[in-house]
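Q&A FORM
Asked by: J.P.
Topic: structure of Class I SAM-dependent methyltransferase

PROVIDED:
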Amino acid sequence: MMDYLRFMISALGTYQPIVPLLARALHQTRQTRMLELCAGAGGGTAGVLRSLRTTAQPEARICLTDLYPQPAAWQALQAAAPGLEFEPAPVDATAVPAALSGFRTVFSAFHHFPPAAAEALLADAVHRRTGIGVFEGAGKHWLELLLAVTVLPVAQLLITPFIRPFRLSRLFFTYGLPLIPLFTIWDGCVSILRMYPPDQLLALARRADPQGRFQWKAGIVRHWWGPQVTYLIGVPSRESQEVSTLES
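REPLIED BY: S.T.
REPLY: Here is the structure written out as tokens.
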């Protein structure tokens, strides 16, 4: 299922609409390195990195991390994407080790965190005075649910033989015993229902940053063909950045 999600996110360019937002945040924080939290199988990461390196940030790099690392999947991405690296040790997104620096990103995973944990994830970025971007490849809308139970399962049946690396087990659990499509439908619907819309993202950010050290922006951007990407971006305010520079 993770292979399928990575393939679809990459093939559809799900996160391409947020590349200008991410480039602007990197410029504001004067960073070229991103630290991706909850990276999973790394879906969409390589495409975003390539777009950044060929447009606004030629020196952009990204380090994949997860509480349950997937080095085998990440090594394949690393071989095909210059500037991509990964941390093989488990990384808790709510308490990131100080040695792991960079502008923090969360793709397709923030909805897994209940409010208290989501607030802790944002608060840790505020505490470290490093910027953070949260991106969800959908909007909390009935049309997204309709896509999750109709169009996407059909697409999954059509594209599964082309997913690499090829596995006979993937074919069996897609066509013989269709657990992967059923789990994907369930996961997609639950993810959309648990997703935080922009106003809730801003509310979480304000609770995580009660002293107003960051500037926060949340919203929705669209692909030209319709689907939405929900985002929250926080960058340290100028005063906070100056304090951080003095301390370093």
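FOLLOW-UP: The longest strand covers residues 214-222.
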